[in-house]
Each structure stands twice: as structure tokens, then as C-alpha cells.
Amino acid sequence: MPRPPELKIADGWGDSAWGCTPHVEEATLNVTEVFIADKDLAGLDAYLNRR
């Protein structure tokens, strides 16, 4: 990792990982159903609880 972990990402199964911004950006652009897991940004929780 080129930098320290800054963001947490998660998938629809609830698996998650921490990553630096460049790697998280790459994952969100290239992997389907990956979300930034941040309660302030609504992230995965809002998606899973949508109506």
C-alpha cells in the first residue's frame, strides 16, 4: 500500500477491508457492489436498508 489505510470499503456480503485512497478508488471503479463503508456517507448501511 503506498499510503496508510484511510477508508473502509465493504461488499454486499458484509466483507470489508481498509485501504488507502488510491486503492479504494480503484476498487470502487473496478469491482461491482463495493461501497465506502462510512456511516456519515451512508455507504453500505443505506444501501442494505433501502426500500
Strand-helix topology:
Layout: E1 7-11, E2 16-19, H1 21-30, E3 34-36, H2 43-48
Brief overview:
With 51 residues, this protein is an alpha+beta fold. The chain has 2 helices and 3 strands; from the N terminus they run E-E-H-E-H.
What would your notes on this structure say?
The protein has 51 residues and is of the alpha+beta class. The mean pLDDT is 78. It is globular. Strand 1 (7-11) and strand 2 form a beta hairpin. It has one domain (7-48). The chain is built from two helices and three strands, in the order ββαβα. The protein has helices at residues 21-30, 43-48; strands spanning 7-11, 16-19, 34-36. Helix content is 31%, strand content 24%. Strands 2-1-3 form a three-stranded antiparallel sheet.
Short descriptors:
about 50 residues, alpha+beta, about 30% helix, globular
End-to-end Cα distance, whole Å, is 37 Å
Helix proportion range: 25-40%
Strand content: 15-25%
Number of strands: 3
Number of domains: 1
Form type? globular
Q: Strand arrangement, largest sheet? A: 2-1-3
The gyration radius over C-alpha positions equals: 11 Å
> What is the makeup of the main sheet?
3 strands, antiparallel
Mean pLDDT: 78
Q: Give the helices and strands as they follow along the chain.
A: EEHEH
Low-confidence stretches: none
Continuous helix count: 2
Structural class: alpha+beta
